[in-house]
Design a protein that fits this description.
With 103 residues, the chain is an alpha+beta fold. Helix content is 52%, strand content 14%. It is built from five helices and three strands; from the N terminus they run βββααααα. It has a three-stranded antiparallel β-sheet with strand order 1-2-3, with helices on one face. The radius of gyration is 19 Å and the shape is elongated.
Length: 103
């Protein structure tokens, strides 16, 4: 059964809760160049794409690393970002940037 799920004004085909997209659909959503890169690297392989919540977590970790770079302590980071001191320490000890590379 196929229905359209709307995301940002673009209709995505939905097959039992799993989204599938044609090359034309990828181009419409990502643009020609990005769609070609995606197809070059992942074409023919089933890929699970993280959701926006995961992106928000990555951005939060980036902001936390910036706070550390500006001299904040784990206690200050924990208070500022609403996380535990232990979580602040773990994030400090495992620095990953938004582009996925280790710092």
């Amino acid at each position: 059964m196929e229905s359209n799920v709307n995301s940002g004004g673009v209709g995505f085909p939905d097959s039992e809760g799993k989204r599938a997209m044609s090359a034309e659909g990828l181009i419409k959503v990502l643009g020609q160049e990005a769609a070609e890169r995606l197809m070059f690297f992942w074409g023919g392989i089933r890929v699970s794409v993280p959701d926006l919540e995961e992106l928000q977590k990555v951005k939060l970790r980036e902001r936390i690393h910036k706070a550390y770079a500006q001299g904040a302590t784990p206690a200050q980071v924990a208070e500022r970002f609403g996380i535990s001191v232990r979580t602040a320490q773990r994030i400090r000890n495992f620095p990953i940037s938004l582009n996925g590379s280790l710092k």
